[in-house]
């Protein structure tokens, strides 16, 4: 990080090499924090939309739901802090649905699960 004063008296701060860094598998702590907050924000926004559009008292007033993002293997990436007790079963539910649907599961599909023996 370097700083200099321009001819006009402005402070110019150069962070890093000034080049664009590609995101790879090796993340530094700043990138990890940025992506963590991005994913958490997505899960929180999912919850806000669900709450605003719901007609169920359990969802609208009691906030009895959970929203989370999962990776391609069904592992938890991030969750919103609604009802965290659901999160223990959510990963297993997602993985069960992935096994159950197999190759029928396509990019962009949305799955609703509420089966008691499948994590719901």
Tell me what you see in this structure.
It is a single chain. With 120 residues, the chain is of the alpha+beta class. It contains 3 helices and 4 strands. It has helices at residues 29-53, 57-60, 87-101, and strands at residues 2-5, 11-14, 68-70, 76-79. The strands form 2 sheets. It has a two-stranded antiparallel sheet. A two-stranded antiparallel sheet has the order 3-4. A hairpin with a 5-residue loop joins strand 1 and strand 2 (11-14). It is elongated and about 70 Å long. The N and C termini lie far apart (50 Å).
Helix and strand layout, with pairings?
Elements: E1 2-5, E2 11-14, H1 29-53, H2 57-60, E3 68-70, E4 76-79, H3 87-101
Antiparallel strand pairs: 1-2, 3-4
Task: Put the structure in a nutshell.
With 120 residues, the chain is of the alpha+beta class. The chain has helices spanning 29-53, 57-60, 87-101, and strands at 2-5, 11-14, 68-70, 76-79. It has three helices and four strands, in the order ββααββα.
What is the mean predicted local confidence, pLDDT? 84
Q: Largest beta sheet, briefly?
A: 2 strands, antiparallel
Q: Which parts are unreliable, with pLDDT below 50 for 5 consecutive residues or more?
A: none
Strand order of the largest sheet: 1-2
Shape: elongated
Q: Compute the gyration radius: what is it?
A: 21 Å
Q: What portion of the residues fall into strands of 2 or more residues?
A: 5-15%
Number of helices: 3
- Decide which structural class fits the backbone: alpha+beta
Tally of strands: 4
Succession of helices and strands: EEHHEEH
- Span of the ends, CA to CA: 50 Å
The percent range for helix content is: 25-40%
